[in-house]
Design a protein that fits this description.
heterodimer; A: 305 residues; alpha/beta; Rossmann fold; 4-stranded parallel sheet; 10 strands; B: ABC transporter involved in vitamin B12 uptake, BtuC
């Protein structure tokens, strides 16, 4: 039923998108077109590329990069682009199909190249299997590698802009240093007993490992999976046994299940964390660094009391 | 002795005692099992089994619109789904009764228009997939509002079915006769379509589309193998729906599988068993004829 639905929707989307393409703004003559798979990468490319690049982000603000279904307009944007920036580590399962179907011939920058990835153990039907956690951007240390990869990729594709890209990247890296200092201080100020929390899906593995917190989630690494009664029961038992103080919602997932868990256990709802997507321009996490500032402020406010 | 006693307790009772989300899921399923399967029984009797599927598509755009306007609000999404579903059902019914088109054809036309409208709205506002994800509820996350909604719908459905029971049965068995002796045929038909939409909206809000259509129709189809008269059909369907819900929930709890599919698959297993061995019209019955027929 669900599958059929999606296929049907895709069909209609196919019919509709040509109508919407007419409304795209006229392209500037001498900018480099860059396609980015989701909003975090889109923001990074904008920061580093500045005026020299024109960024098209496939999965926009508050969108879920795990389960996106590309539209024909995306294929058109991709084939026009000179560079494609992806996260890799299995986040964008839909991207290889899109690359193939669009006939993209440009350069691909995989932002996680050189990052030491985390393996997560996920229990499914009684068997434990190892899954690579794609959410590497949730650690600012990895963020630096993202920035370096994107900078080098842009320079390789557009050598004329080398000085601009290097200057922007240096400034970005300096900003990362500032935010990281703040993040480390705020988390360090939390009592050790209050550093274990619940979120909707396993998006904060890198964050937790880097800054010393434990994140537990009813959904797995991808938002695609549906929680079973056993998963939910396990988490409720764990919250009660370990006196976990708060649960946090995420901007990309359905919050109804967590509301229910919070109610049943008496844990408080600490606020909304931005995990797999930025907010729109007016939101609290419009850029990569704003996302960190917002998440850490939310965590520290809910957990320090 | 103690162990013998405690094992079935751990297996069947303790999940519901320990966790309120399991109790809520069970109560939600009970309410849904009381309201939806009787409607399904009449759908099957009227050979409109596939209409449930079509109607669930017609509801989706209204719910999507509600979500886009008011966010994840049970009221906005239910109201939107209700309006879209009833509009499609009633328009299709009117067209079928006043033009040459048959009911299934006019319904197909209207629900496709409704679906396309919904997809248009959604694609103007952004990615359709996130929205679909949000639209599918889960039985494990029933809050008070959702439980009250399902309860009201179940109560309303039973009351309405009680009031229009006689014309509805006549409409199923001999619609021409009903039209010749009474003028309630059209109102009954439209009221029935509204009931279908109501139950789908309640079910899909709380449990997801698959659940909503599945729990309406699978028990009703299964009941055909166990009973012949309409009251017995309804009772058999309700028992099958509730039994499957409870077993499905426990399966989801013990075997670590998602709840919605577990419940519907349990209904499916009940259906398959009924095909094979049930007392009426099953394969076993046809292979082993009754004595007085074999003479």
């Amino acid at each position: 039923m669900v599958l059929k639905m999606n296929r049907r929707l895709l069909l209609y989307a196919t019919l509709l998108t040509p109508l919407m393409l007419g409304s795209l703004p006229a392209r500037a003559a001498d900018t480099i077109k860059v396609a980015a798979s989701f909003s975090v990468l889109g923001d990074m490319v904008k920061q580093i590329g500045g005026d020299r690049v024109e960024v098209k982000t496939f999965v926009g603000p508050n969108g879920d990069a795990h389960v996106y279904e590309p539209a024909p307009g995306d294929a058109k944007a991709l084939v026009d682009a000179k560079i494609l920036v992806v996260n890799g580590l299995g986040l964008e399962g839909w991207m290889s199909r899109l690359q193939k179907s669009s006939g993209f011939k440009g350069k691909v920058i995989t932002a996680t190249t050189g990052i030491k990835s985390r393996q997560m153990e996920e229990e499914e039907h009684g068997k434990t299997k190892k899954i690579t956690d794609p959410h590497a951007w949730q650690s600012l240390a990895n963020g630096r590698i993202y920035v370096a990869n994107i900078r080098d990729g842009l320079i390789a594709a557009d050598p004329d802009g080398k000085s601009t890209y290097e200057a922007n990247a240096t400034k970005f890296l300096a900003d990362i240093d500032t935010v990281e200092k703040d993040v480390t201080e705020k988390i360090a100020a939390l009592p050790a007993t209050r550093r274990k929390i619940i979120t909707t899906h396993d998006a904060f593995g890198y964050f937790g490992a880097t800054y010393g917190m434990d994140f537990i989630a009813p959904e797995g690494v991808s938002t695609e999976s549906e929680a079973s009664a056993k998963d939910v029961a396990k988490i409720i038992r764990q919250i009660k046994a370990e006196k976990i103080p708060a649960v946090f919602l995420e901007n990309v997932t359905d919050h109804r299940l967590l509301d229910q868990i919070a109610k049943e256990t008496g844990a408080k709802i600490g606020g909304t964390l931005f995990s797999d997507a930025l907010s729109d321009e007016r939101g609290p996490a419009a850029t990569y660094l704003d996302m960190f500032r917002h998440n850490v402020a939310t965590l520290s406010e809910a957990l320090s009391s | 002795m103690m162990e013998l006693f405690s094992q079935p307790y751990d297996l069947l009772i303790s999940p519901f005692v320990e966790f309120s989300f399991m109790r809520r899921a069970l109560v939600g399923c009970l309410a849904l099992s009381i309201g939806a399967p009787p409607v399904g029984v009449f759908l099957v009797l009227r050979r409109m089994s596939l209409m449930g599927d079509a109607m669930s598509h017609a509801i989706l755009p209204g719910a999507a619109l509600g979500y886009l306007v008011a966010g994840l609000s049970l009221f906005a999404m239910s109201a939107g789904g209700l309006v879209a579903g009833i509009a499609v059902a009633v328009l299709a019914g009117i067209v079928a009764r006043s033009t040459v088109l048959r009911e299934d054809a006019s319904l197909a036309a209207f629900y496709l228009v409704s679906l396309a409208t919904g997809v248009l709205i959604v694609s103007v506002r952004g990615s359709s997939i996130d929205l679909l994800h949000v639209l599918f509820g889960t039985v494990l996350a029933l809050d008070d509002a959702a439980l009250i909604l399902i309860g009201i719908i179940a109560t309303g459905t039973l009351t309405a079915l009680a009031i229009m029971y006689r014309p509805l049965v006549l409409e199923c068995l001999d619609p021409m006769f009903l039209r010749s002796v009474s003028r309630v045929s059209s109102p009954t038909h439209i009221a029935f379509l509204v009931l279908v939409v109501l139950n789908l909206v309640g079910g899909f809000q709380a449990l997801g589309t698959l659940m909503a259509v599945g729990i309406m129709l699978l028990p009703a189809v299964t009941a055909r193998f166990w009973a012949e008269e309409v009251p017995n059909l309804i009772i058999a369907a309700v028992i099958c729906a509730f039994g499957s819900s409870a077993v499905g929930l426990l399966l989801s709890y013990h075997a670590n599988v998602p709840s919605g599919p577990a419940i519907i698959l349990t209904c499916g297993v009940a259906y398959l068993i009924s095909i094979l061995v049930a007392p009426r019209g099953s394969l076993l019955r046809q292979l082993v004829p009754r004595k007085h027929l074999s003479a």
